[in-house]
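Saturday, quiet lab. Running sequence design on the structure tokens for the scaffold JK sent over.
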């Protein structure tokens, strides 16, 4: 029996084949690397953005299922871009992908409606799992984030969902 025909794999296979992703990062080599990683995992990157304003505009135009946003981008940071995307496209799920793990960034992102916060240093380990969890409506936070400084309800929820 092949790995794809085992019971329970249908949901994973369906998510891998149908999720439409948008990738926003101002660093072109980082975007290329992330796109390659995502495609190896079976995801489809339908559009890329180089700054926050472009991310908002392209997300509205292309209606991706999941939007991956760098935190530090020109013209509009990833948190504010996520806030605008979440407001204009409620069905889209947003994930911050960043090198910044400080608790105040995580809290600001969660307050903006972000459903995932992934550290770039853990992208290989966390990205595919995080995208799938967020697409299923769950919260995903990378290991190593300063969760102990977040409000108790957020820290408890985040730990439970991981």
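Result came back. Writing it out in full:
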């Amino acid at each position: 029996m092949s790995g794809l025909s085992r019971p329970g794999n249908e949901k994973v296979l369906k998510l891998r084949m149908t999720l439409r992703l948008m990738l926003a990062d101002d660093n072109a080599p980082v975007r290329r690397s992330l796109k390659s990683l995502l495609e190896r995992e079976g995801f489809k990157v339908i559009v890329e953005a180089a700054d926050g304003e472009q991310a908002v505009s392209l997300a509205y135009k292309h209606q991706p299922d999941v939007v991956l946003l760098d935190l530090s981008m020109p013209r509009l940071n990833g948190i504010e871009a996520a806030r605008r995307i979440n407001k204009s496209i409620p069905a889209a799920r947003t994930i911050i992908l960043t090198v910044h793990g400080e608790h105040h960034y995580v809290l600001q992102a969660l307050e903006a409606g972000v459903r995932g916060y992934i550290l770039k240093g853990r992208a290989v380990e966390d990205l595919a799992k995080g995208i799938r969890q967020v697409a299923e409506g769950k919260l995903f936070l990378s290991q190593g984030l300063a969760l102990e400084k977040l409000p108790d309800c957020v820290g408890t929820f985040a730990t439970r969902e991981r």
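Notes for JK: The radius of gyration is 15 Å. The chain has seven helices and six strands. Ask whether to fix the surface positions before the next round.
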